[in-house]
């Protein structure tokens, strides 16, 4: 599961891949978001998940 920490409200939200792509283009990336994107990209490239 991919999660994103909203620093303004400080809560954790489960994200679908499409939501992660939307967030990464809409907000300034944080370290946690970048880590999530990196993990997701690794899973996609390994074939463990499908886009």
Short note summarizing the structure:
The mean pLDDT is 62. The protein has helices spanning 17-26, 31-46; strands spanning 2-6, 11-15.
Which oligomeric state applies?
single chain
In round numbers, the mean pLDDT is 62
Side by side, the strands of the main sheet go: 1-2
The helix/strand class is: alpha+beta
Largest sheet: 2 strands, antiparallel
Percent helix among the residues? 40-55%
Strand portion: 15-25%
Number of helices: 2
Give the SSE order as H and E letters.
EEHH
Q: What shape does the CA trace take?
A: globular
- How many beta-strand elements? 2
Rg from Cα: 11 Å
Q: In whole angstroms, how far apart are the ends?
A: 14 Å
Poorly predicted runs:
none
Number of domains: 1
Explain what you see.
With 51 residues, this protein is an alpha+beta fold. The chain has one domain (2-46). It is 51% helix and 20% strand. The protein has 2 helices and 2 strands. The chain has helices at residues 17-26, 31-46; strands spanning 2-6, 11-15. The longest helix has 16 residues, at 31-46. The mean pLDDT is 62.
């Amino acid at each position: 599961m991919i999660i994103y920490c909203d620093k303004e409200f400080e809560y954790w939200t489960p994200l679908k891949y499409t939501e992660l792509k939307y967030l990464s283009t809409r907000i300034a990336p944080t370290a946690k978001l970048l880590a999530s994107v990196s993990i997701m990209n690794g899973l996609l490239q390994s074939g463990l998940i499908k886009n």
